[in-house]
Design brief:
Layout: H1 3-16, E1 23-27, H2 32-37, H3 39-48, E2 53-58, H4 63-68, E3 74-77, E4 98-101, H5 107-114, E5 120-122, H6 138-148, E6 173-176, H7 188-200, E7 205-208, H8 214-224, E8 231-232, H9 238-246, E9 250-254, H10 257-264, E10 269-272, H11 278-281, E11 289-292, H12 308-311, H13 315-342
Parallel strand pairs: 1-2, 1-4, 2-3, 4-5, 6-7, 6-9, 7-8, 9-10, 10-11
Helix pairs in contact: 3-6, 7-8, 7-13
């Protein structure tokens, strides 16, 4: 689809449905990390269809981060248990001009979009769909999908704009021990040991957790001596969480949404991987982002118990990775101060 095709297509779509701007419906009804990994593809869609309204079908709880990307005009509430394919039949108005399946590669997500009778459907499971790249990084996979349809997208176009909200703990190390599944959750007592090490080195450490993770966060806090304003339970609203991560000196977490948020804000991070290799879901290659992982056969990213590869990551190597990045932060700040004095 050329740029001229897209422009002409938008005009004809508007003519068919006067009073309704043509809409591109993108299905990606998953979690925060999935949304952020999909930002490069979403921005490719936004640029390819400048005259369309880009609507993202996803859980309504992720509306704020979706709009913060600048690639989405509207969120269409859609979610299903267990990362399943949601029903989309509550769609209102004319059928989507274009529907895109960025949810998965099976017929279920394709069929959910096809039921809305879009003028054009782009999906791996369509007869003209590109081959599924199962061993590609998530960002690369969906950008390649768009490229197959003539839509340019840059896998590194993933940064979010700085939050308008001030950080509740500027310069702190943010430690997030939780994860959506037990297989990606490093033991809390190990997180506590790292927190004690970071605190002993003179760093302020703030603990965070998502909804339903209060008990875990409090346990890590109790075993590491953190209290008061350094323990943020209950799941922060996205604006505050985004500001906290953007203003942090470092983010330590498992393979979860907060790790993707750190990358999106250019905040240094140490991420612990277990059942899924970082080459599939990890950060782009950068000295600012360390992905710790022990090679082995793939595990279940949605399992209930900690993955064997994750448990092989030692406390001392996590603490060392964090302190190395933090020394780099301090070194750059001191160099910047010295340069300011010289000039």
């Amino acid at each position: 689809m050329t740029a001229r095709d897209r422009t002409t297509h938008g005009v004809t779509a508007a003519a068919r449905h006067p009073g309704h701007p043509p809409r591109v419906l993108v299905l990606r009804a998953l979690g925060l990390g999935d949304l952020l990994a999909g930002v490069p593809a979403l921005r490719g869609v936004r640029r390819a269809f400048p005259g369309h309204r880009v609507v993202l079908a996803q859980p309504p709880g992720l509306t704020e981060p979706a709009l913060a990307t600048g690639a989405v005009d509207e969120v269409f509430p859609a979610e299903a248990p267990g990362r399943g394919v949601p029903d989309l039949t509550h769609w209102r108005g004319p059928p989507p001009d274009v529907a895109m399946d960025l949810h998965g590669n099976g017929p279920e997500s394709r069929d959910a979009l096809a039921a809305l009778h879009p003028r054009r459907l782009l999906a791996h499971a369509c007869p003209d769909g590109p081959a599924w790249q199962g061993q590609a990084n998530e960002r690369d996979r969906w950008c390649a999908f768009l490229h197959a349809y003539g839509i340019p997208a840059d896998p590194l176009d993933l940064r979010l704009p700085p939050p308008a909200t001030p950080s509740p703990a500027p310069g702190a190390v943010v430690v997030h021990p939780g994860a959506a599944s037990g297989s990606r959750r490093w033991p809390g007592e190990r997180f506590a040991a790292v927190v004690r090490c970071l605190h002993a080195a003179g760093h302020r450490v703030v603990l965070t957790g998502g909804p339903g993770e209060d008990a875990l966060v409090r346990s890590v806090a109790e075993h590491s001596g953190r209290r008061g304003g350094d323990v943020l339970t209950g799941g922060l609203p996205f604006g505050q969480l985004s500001a906290l991560v953007a203003g942090a000196s470092l983010v330590l977490s498992g393979d979860t949404g907060l790790a993707h948020l750190a990358v999106a804000h250019g905040t240094r991070s140490v991420t612990l991987f277990g059942p899924v290799a970082p080459r599939l879901w990890g950060p782009p290659p950068s000295p600012d982002h360390v992905a710790l992982w022990k090679p082995g056969p793939p595990g279940d990213p949605h399992g209930r118990t900690p993955d064997a590869r994750l448990l092989r990551i030692r406390t001392d190597e996590v603490a060392a990775a964090c302190l190395t990045l933090l020394r780099d932060v301090r070194g750059r700040r001191q160099s910047g101060t010295e340069a300011a004095h010289v000039h």
